[in-house]
Amino acid sequence: MWVATRPPRVGSLSLLCLAVLLCTPLAISSEPAGLFARLFGATEVTAVADDTGGSNCGACSILVGVVEQLAEYHNASVDAYMENLCMWIPSEAAQAGCRLLISTYGPEIIAALENKETPDIVCHTLGLCKTPSGTPMCHVFPLPSRFQGDPIGLSRHVEHRRRQYLNRQQQSGAVTGGGVGKTPAWCKWPGIEEICNIIDAWTGDHLPVEDRDGDRFSTFPSARGTAWRGKDCDDANKNIYPGRRTPDGDANTDSNCNGIYGVDATTGKSYEDLWCNGTQRYGTAVLGDSIGAHFHIPRAWMNVTEMDEESFSNLFYILTNEMDWPELSTATGHSNATKWPEEVHGPMDSLYQRLFTQNHCNHRDYQNVAVNGARATAMNSTIVRSLARRQDADQPLLIMLELVGNDVCSGHPGTSHMTPPEVYHDAQLATLRYLDTILPAGSHILLVGLVDGRFLYDHMHARIHPLGALRHDVTYTDVYGYLECLGVTPCWGWLNSNGSARNATTAHAELLNAELKKIADNETFKNFDVLYSVYNITEAAEIAKTMGKQPWELIEPIDGFHANQLGNALTTRVLWELFEKEKPAWIPALNPHNADILSKFRNQGGY
Known about the structure:
The protein is mostly helical.
């Protein structure tokens, strides 16, 4: 049984804010993949990244390319839009860091772009990108026409410009990071190292960064707070939190934070007893990966035709949510997508929202325990332990256990880094057995198998990426190949131009799905039943076609790897229809007192 043994967390938010805002303009994260790689959904890097510059290289090329295109689009100078980009960052501290970068690299960037060098060549000149001997240069933007088909000439040109840059650095006495021409190790700088350590600690246990009573629920919106888990209505009392059974009908205290409490003067009964007791109640949770967390990068961050001073207004919120949007996700969505007109495009629908619509007594009873990059082994060893549920005191849960790609996806080529079927089987079964020790009786678990990720390349590869929106010169094939070249691709197998690699990845995914289905068919559990289903993006795409949409319109435009807002909403519809067909008992009866609850308690305290 889970108990609130984690010590309270307070006082770290100001340092967390500083950490995010300092690290953002540097395009560096203390986590293995780096912030740039995470922009495209990668959560680890390969040894190749050490040789190419990895995230540092990618961040440089993208930033220089964006600045160059902004200047062209607005018919202004490059240096003016460097300054504009800094001013658009919503923090004076972060703006100062941005200006430090400009003072360090700006003159070289401006001179190179005026000389018609491409962003990729600029970043090789600065030493943030490297080309290992005997390999082609990684580039996301088209090479200058004079070097197309001439890799030797390109290599000589880059080496010449690099030597010129280093000579100027030596003459001026400039030092960047650990020395002249060296790539800065930002998280080793004095004052920054402590901040990076805080980020590591915060993201390591997947729990709210602000939790005063240690019950794993918070009042802070981001940083694994209320966007991820229902809002704690008393963060000084560990026995008050969303999803618990009410010990006394909540006559005096809202012990389950659903906004329903007090006594009806006419009957003398508590409103919980009158309007909630006897109804079907259970919360909603997801244990999963970046699909379950709803990884999403605003397309305006890389599309200069949409970018303006409002594009980064919610930068801090997005980064402290790990670039995930659990409040709009398939499992735990509870917010209105129109709240973020600059960042989000599409409808919101979720399992939690549908359960709340059936029974308003379920208000705030949601938990999103999904982690970017999660695999079956990590789910069993650490992630599932972050779920908050007390078998003896809480309502049952409807859980979506989804790990739809990372057990076959990584930046490593080939199949050797894919999870073996027997390891996958044992890890998933161990996760379920652990859940059987903490979940209240009457819970339900949807076991979601891996997706057929060939859908991504099939529908995205020839389309123009937001980086190429201005000149129509960068496709998803270019971006996928660039990430692979740098060693930071989120999925070597499925984002590969080689059809055999894509097919081999799907074949391994099918082996893992067979193991998960074997568990669903053969294992029984004391406190919950299970239902197996693959992550069926193709079925969602068929629904989209009836709406006049094409399959590519269900995929995130920046990373070309995750389901977007529409994809999340339609996945909810697919799953609900699955429940109606296979598990109708999982859909609670409509609470006849919903209108009474709405009349008395309005929005029940909101979210």
